Amino acid sequence: MNRVTFRILVSIAFVLGCALDETATLPSDTQLPDSVGMPDAESGDSGDSDTGQQEDVAEICSVEICDGLDNDCDGYVDEALDDIPCVDPESTLKCGGKSKCVEGILLCAPIQPGPELCDGLDNDCDGEVDEDYPELDEPCDGPDPDLCEDGIQQCRADKKGTVCVPGNSGPGVEVCDGIDNDCDGQIDNAPPEACSLTNVFGSCIGHKSCKKGKSVCDAQIPWKESCDGVDNDCDGEVDETFPDSDEDGIADCMEEGDVDDDGVDNATDNCVTDWNPTQLDTDEDGKGNKCDLDDDGDGDPDDHDCDPLDADIYSDAPEICDNKDNDCDNLVDEDGACT
User: Fold this and answer.
1) Where are the domains positioned within the chain?
2) Which residues contact 319 (CB under 8 A, 6 or more apart)?
């Protein structure tokens, strides 16, 4: 039997039995045709070599390719070779194509451009994906009662637009941090809390306010008592250390026309006991700079503030790109403020 006949017999055996056990032997009463295993008179091949048979089997069964043959010996020809992503080097389209096996020839059929859809694919073959939907993956406020942007814009089921898909987070407790924590549309609007400022002169009570994401106590800074009609040391008494000749509760210094001789009557003088003819009041709090311990009203006392006349400059203020030392750390525009 020649090689062609032998290959046909082996192919039939693979189709019917799918596989041969390497250790299996034929029954003793099984007879092969006389020509099987015998030398071929014309070719000189010998059929009694196990190695020769194994090589013939390996040549017959292999990975399926597009050639019009059943390469993998499964009874099908050129199967599962269509619709595989491919690239045609001669095509100018950027989204490639899909394979097509036609009569033993493998072709790359280009994908025709279409309208861009929201589906993660380059539908119009311009090299970009979902470029007509710039809002894709952006934060959004989902269909819920709060104003938190805790959702993400994702592609709709019809691939023709986006929809806000809500996340798992939600409203929180409002704190002073420049963020709308409770999702009510307002920033840093938590109810005011009581606070106090204390030093050697006394303790003054006030309320916390949020300024530029930083909690500030608006309490008066305690100071030694002055004759100014104000309870400077916050002990509940006014001008108690000054004479009150008529015992009417008003110190004598407050009943005179111009105690500090600065040309401004006590009734309108913003620093009654301190000479202050210009009446300069930077923070417009009614107390002149001459006697105000915090001239710019930024919550940082003048003796601690590196620029007591600029409300945007104080200790621990946010550093911005303005060629100034905003946070009083002796550095200008640090920490990437100008990037």
Assistant:
1) 3-60, 115-167, 194-255
2) 326, 327, 331, 333, 334, 335, 337
